[in-house]
Amino acid sequence: MSDLSPLSLTSKPPTGNSSLQLLILSNGHGEDLIAVRILQELLQQPNPPSVSALPLVGEGRAYKQLDIPLIGSVQPMPSGGFVYMDGRQLVRDIRGGLVQLTRNQIKSVRHWVNYQNKSGNPSAILAVGDIVPLLFAWLSGARYAFVGTAKSEYYVRDESSLLKRKTKGAYWENFSGSIYHPWERWLMTRRHCKAVFPRDSLTADILKTMRVPAFDLGNPMMDGLEPSFPTHRFYSTDAEHQEIIRPLVVTLLPGSRPPEAYNNWEQIMTGVSALMGSFRERDSILHTSGTVVFLGAIAQSLDNKILSGSVKSQGWRIVPNEESPVKISDPEALTFKQKNAYLILTQNAYNDCLHLGDLALAMAGTATEQFVGLGKPAIAIPGGGPQFNPGFAEAQSRLLGQSIVLVEHAGQVGQEVRSLLKNADNLHVISQNGWRRMGEPGAARRIAECLMEKF
After folding, report:
1. pLDDT-derived band at 425, boundaries 50, 70, 90
2. What is the pLDDT of residues 106-155, one digit of tens each?
3. For the chain, what is the radius of gyration of the CA atoms?
4. Mapped to the 3 state alphabet, what secondary structure does 406-452 carry?
5. Band of pLDDT at residue 97, cut at 50, 70 and 90
6. I need a labelling partner for 359 at 20 to 30 A (CA). Which of 34, 71, 275, 341 fits?
7. Helices (H) and strands (E) in the chain, counts
């Protein structure tokens, strides 16, 4: 835990060189990463702002890559930031010091603004996440902007109508005509709020009708996903033949938080077995090659030995990386083989795993959304939580629409994959849906340019 006095800000100069002082508020690991993407673009602008940050959840390790100084108190909570999914997690956080931490953080934000005002520096706040950083920004009295990462109109509607829901509480998600409730929109329409950046066009359009200064500039989650290989390839005389003989590639996304991700991996391996069992060798649906390659995109936060042990226990044997028909940019990857299938575990080629996959077996939040945003289908298997539980998976299926196939248990994976691959027209619809819901790359740069103009 770090508790920096507001007046100690001068001990480490903020990043940047302009007179504008910018404070970033974010409330979660994913939100920290999105904030960092925007900051990377902000610092490339002419006369960039001087930047400090206050991560409201966790320790804000993502900010270290840009050497962004942190102000105020930072402390990891037992829930890891998932209190909204389970009331018991909130109780654990309160016992872990959440109330005192929140008080300290509000004081730190106000002290920061007062310090800048006394120094004669123009200041502003960028809130990234949900209502919590947005509320902190309003309480500060400074100018602010908001990047809304947590909510989307797709949770309650598509482009044509409201979604049909069976739960009694569904009405309250949209009772005022928007996924953003009246008190959230009130914070967005204060005179000090200069810009709101929703995560998709549908949400931006609806907020605009409610006097919110919303800008439809895209979702920074789709930035920084370039693979190690060129994505634009020229047509060759044997291109059709190569497409016919190439293997089916399935990306495996177990999430990044231990110990949950290890439990997710066991579920995914059950799905892998079900998928392999559903195909006959040289099955026409698997292209002529009859080969399947599974790409395990493993977060650095996980112990690869635990995952590889699980793979070996299910009959896979290690082979040289060169044997795999699919190549990734990670010499440290582990390659396994079983019958006519390969499984690769990598902790250094995440982007390659997203781009090479034809479909995904997914039990993750951000990673699943990024995969779908590339125009590809994912099969989601609900886990035990605290993040990827049945409630989260159901909400994610609404957010991503046709691009997600939600199964009740891992044993259904095989039949769902066969159903997907048999319908080429549906795959095209899924592709268009993913691009529309997640947006085009370059959002961080567009948001940075807008912030410089507004501030």
Report:
1. very high
2. 999 999 999 999 989 899 999 999 999 999 999 999 999 999 999 999 99
3. 23
4. ECCCHHHHHHHHHHHHHCHHHHHHHHHHHHHHHCCCCHHHHHHHHHH
5. low
6. 34
7. 16, 15
Phi, psi of 382 (to 5 degrees): -60, 140
Residue with tokens 């529309």: 436
Domains along the sequence of the chain with CATH: 2-219+440-454 (3.40.50.2000), 239-438 (3.40.50.2000)
Check if the beta carbon of residue 437 is closer than 8 Å to that of residue 403.
yes
As a whole number of Å, the end-to-end CA separation of the chain is 32
DSSP 226: -
Q: Distance between CA 203 and CA 215 in Å, rounded?
A: 10
Q: How far is CA 109 from the centre of its chain?
A: 26
The pLDDT value recorded for residue 6 is 34
Classified as helix, coil or strand, 186 is helix
Better-scored residue on pLDDT, 94 or 234: 94
Residue in 32, 38, 28, 43 with CA at minimum distance from that of residue 145: 38
Q: Nearest to residue 196, comparing CAs of 186, 206, 207?
A: 207
Q: Which residues contact 253 (CB under 8 A, 6 or more apart)?
A: 297, 360, 361, 362, 363, 364, 367, 368, 371, 378
Q: Quick one: tokens of 162?
A: 């409201």
CA–CA distance from 376 to each of 153, 169, 225, 284, 358 (Å)? Answer: 21, 31, 14, 20, 7
Closest alpha carbon to 9 in 65, 68, 83, 93 = 68
Q: Are 293 and 325 in contact (CB under 8 A)?
A: yes
HSE at residue 287, side-chain half, CA atoms within 13 A, is 16
pLDDT class of 167 with cuts at 50, 70, 90: confident
Length of the chain: 455
Whether cis (ω within 30° of 0) applies to the bond prior to 259 is yes
Whether the pLDDT of residue 9 is over 90: the answer is no
Longest Cα–Cα distance of the chain, Å, equals 73
List pLDDT tens digits, range 267-278.
Answer: 999 999 999 988
Owner of token pair 């500060």: 140
Instruction: Kindly report the number of other CB atoms within 10 A of residue 209's CB atom.
Output: 10
Helix, strand, coil percentages (3-state) for the chain, rounded to 5, are: 45, 15, 40
CA triple 448-449-455, angle to 5 deg:
85
Question: What letter does residue 347 receive in the DSSP assignment?
Answer: S
Q: Which burial class, exposed, middle or buried, applies to 224 when counting CB atoms under 10 A from its CB (0-12, 13-18, 19+)?
A: middle
- Residue closest to 386 by CA, chosen among 40, 13, 78: 78
More confident residue, 92 or 99: 99
